[in-house]
Amino acid sequence: MTTTQKTAQRGFTLLEMLVVMVLIGLLAGLVGPRLFGKVDTSKVQTTLVQIKLLENSVSMMALDINAPPPAGVGLAWLVQRPDTEPARTLWKGPYIDGALPKDGWGNAFLYQIPGLNGREFSVISLGSDGQPGGEGTAADIATK
After folding, report:
1. Are 89 and 66 in contact (CB under 8 A)?
2. Where are the beta strands (DSSP E) in 22-140?
3. What does the DSSP 8-state code read for residue 111?
4. Which of 1, 85, 113, 129 might form a disulfide with 121, Cβ 3.0–4.6 angstroms?
5. Residues in Cβ contact with 91 at an 8 Å cutoff, skipping those fewer than 6 apart
6. What is the pLDDT of residues 102-112, one digit of tens each?
7. Does domain 43-138 have CATH number 3.30.700.10?
């Protein structure tokens, strides 16, 4: 004689799965934008710190070689001995460890001489879009 037993199957119904997916979607919609806003803010702050570090390094080098590096050279002299005299002889670098840092979005910094607002030189980030100008996180970043 053969007996068949029915066992109760456990699991989630389609309706329960849909409710969970809707709740996850709502949470992502509410929390996601706030979280991404914080990421952008931290990239701006990181970029400002890097700019100040680079400006201090250029200032230290300028004390050694008696002038900031020329515009055509950019920030390269912070890590690489100049080819021209008297800067080559007076250079006591490297003035930063490793390679030149990038801004919060992975873009190279710009070195401008004369600088912004009457300063001798400026180090500038072009922001998240890597283009001059812009608004919000795409705006250019420099110390005042």
Report:
1. no
2. 110-112, 122-124
3. E
4. 113
5. 61, 64, 65, 77, 81, 82
6. 999 999 999 99
7. yes
